[in-house]
Amino acid sequence: MAKTELNFKGMSCPMPIMKTAMAFKKAASGDIFEAVCDDPAFEADIRAWSKETGNILQSVSKSGKDTTAVIVKK
Amino acid sequence: MDSNALSKTVQELGDRVAALEHKNSNMTMVLFSGDFDKVMAAFIIANGALAMGKEVTMFVTFWGLDAFKKPTLSTKGKKILEKMVLWMRPKDPTKLPTSKMNFAGIGPKLFQYMMGKKNVEPLPSLIEMSMEFGLKVIACQMSMDVMGIAKDDLMDGIEVGGVAAFLSSSFDSNTTLFI
Q1: Best label site of A2, B31, B136, B166, fewest CB within 10 Å?
Q2: Sign of torsion over alpha carbons A16, B57, B149, B96
């Protein structure tokens, strides 16, 4: 299945998780999202958000300042 | 224990678990402060909880009401003391003072400039977003009366209530914050 890309670069707390929540509201179960963000708090926040909402955090990777998270809608 | 009694017990346990899970999905906040920095913190937390799928109720009292005033608020027809209080308070959420380093109103401008540089979402936008996400706002009728604020002076979509409305929401939540 195709991944939907979410670009959160330049955003700061709480916008990345707000935008994630907005994208997931419209999504169907099994939809895959790839979110990129350069806010250092993003990794902790996306982990907490996934844990709390029950969505599946498939992977988190870092490259330079960017954190990329792959999340699947439950 | 016969099977009837057993199924009744299971049903009761199911109901109690459901009630606990419901509690787990609620958060209640009291917004008492009208300081820009504290209101900012309140709305970042409220938006975060809404994004995490929680139902959030914000009980707004005393100075917190300043964050929900309509910019069009007029003192026309109000009593003289009410007018005085309204004249001395910020007119709307864009004019709130900071709790520290206010410097007669220069502080908030400075912080707003610095927050803009760091791409922090401005307060009016955070307020609007939280309302769109379903934030339930209950304005304290008693402090509205004291300050001469009518329901129409506050943003649309706000309910009014008293301490019982706040407590009922708080008892039904597993997190309550006072800001």
Answers
A1: A2
A2: negative
Contacts of A10 in chain B (CB under 8 A): 119
A18 with B53: Cβ contact below 8 A: no
- How do B159-161 and A56-63 pair as beta strands? unpaired
**Average pLDDT value over all residues in chain B:** 91
**β-strand A66-72 against B55-60: which pairing, if any?**
unpaired
pTM: 0.88
Q: What confidence tier does B54 reach under pLDDT thresholds 50, 70, 90?
A: very high
In the beta sheet, which residues pair with residue A61? A68
Nearest-by-CA chain B residue for A20:
B51
Residues of B in contact with A18 (CB under 8 A): 47-48, 50-51, 129, 133
Strand order in the sheet with B175-178: B159-161, B136-140, B55-60, B26-31, B175-178
Q: Say yes or no: B119 contacts chain A, CB-CB below 8 A.
A: yes
Task: Please report the pLDDT score of residue B19 as a whole number.
Answer: 85
ipTM (interface pTM): 0.88
A17 exposure class (CB count in 10 Å sphere: 0-12, 13-18, 19+):
buried
Shortest distance between the Cα of B71 and any Cα of chain A, in A, equals: 25
Q: What is the pLDDT of residues A20-64, one digit of tens each?
A: 999 999 999 999 999 999 999 999 999 999 999 999 999 999 999
**B139 CB near a chain A CB, below 8 Å?**
no
